[in-house]
Amino acid sequence: MRSAVRVGAGPGFALDAVTCDDDHRRWSPVETSSAHRLVLVRRGRFRRLADGRSSLADPTLAYLSTPGEEERFAHPAGGDVCTSVSLSAGLWRTLAGEDVRPSRSALYVDARLDVAHRRFLAAARAGDAPFGLAEALLSLLSGALRQVTDRPLREAAGGEAARGAARRSTSPAAIVDAAREAIACDHEAAGDLLSLAELLGVSPYRLSRAFTRELGVSLTHYRNRVRVGRALDRLERGERGLARLAADLGFADQAHLTRTIRRHAGHTPTAMRHLLTHPEADGPAGGGRRAGPVGSARA
């Protein structure tokens, strides 16, 4: 029996934890893939048959299925647990290109791709799908596509976005400045990484890399820095409704707000409110221990 639990989703992609309890050596009935799907094994192993080729999927060998591809599975070693990432046709074209088809489906999971997989799952647990999970997805797909296609993730966007980009500078510095402006003014397209990249006329991958190159921090970290600053403004004015504050600033929930402020500023929101409203205080009042040097995080 196979079961899937949705653990994360963003514009054009979904992340499922798939558990299979089957135990059989015979091939299953044919299944037809309906989307581009990257499957990485977390525990166990099983066999996959596609395009007449059989392969053993385990934590060191993942696979990429494409729409319309016929697959069959066998589980001679018992159950397994996998991560399945589904991409819409539009997102696949945005990230890989119009005419890209993988040269093969199986791909080797080296230590770097394994780390990218684990960080992707950690990003899903963090609850920031529009930026944190999307950036982790780019890192994961970059490593995967490098193996099974002739090119990495796309550097340029297409369609109207590309024509818009042609009318303005797309140097990394210019991309970062334009993105910072959109985030600062709360442009509606700045609500997630993919729509922000479309607004700027660049690929999501290029936008993500530009922040790391120019500022030394990820786009996710920068956006959270802006939100933390806004949270501190309100805490300084005595804000006590943390759930309301989290909702107003676009955090998944109050716990997400607390984790982010603590990671960036070193204290919980409650402790920060005390520090900012009682300048004579030497330290936080019941706000928890320090999380580390301010500015040391990159989340």
TrEMBL record:
The lineage of its organism: Bacteria, Bacillati, Actinomycetota, Actinomycetes, Streptosporangiales. Residues 177-275 form the HTH araC/xylS-type domain. It comes from the Bacteria. SUPFAM superfamilies: Homeodomain-like. InterPro entries: AraC_XylS_family_regulators, Homeodomain-like_sf, HTH_AraC, HTH_AraC-typ_CS. This is AraC-like DNA-binding protein. Residues 277-299 are annotated as: Disordered. Keywords: DNA-binding, Transcription, Transcription regulation. GO terms for molecular function: DNA-binding transcription factor activity; sequence-specific DNA binding.
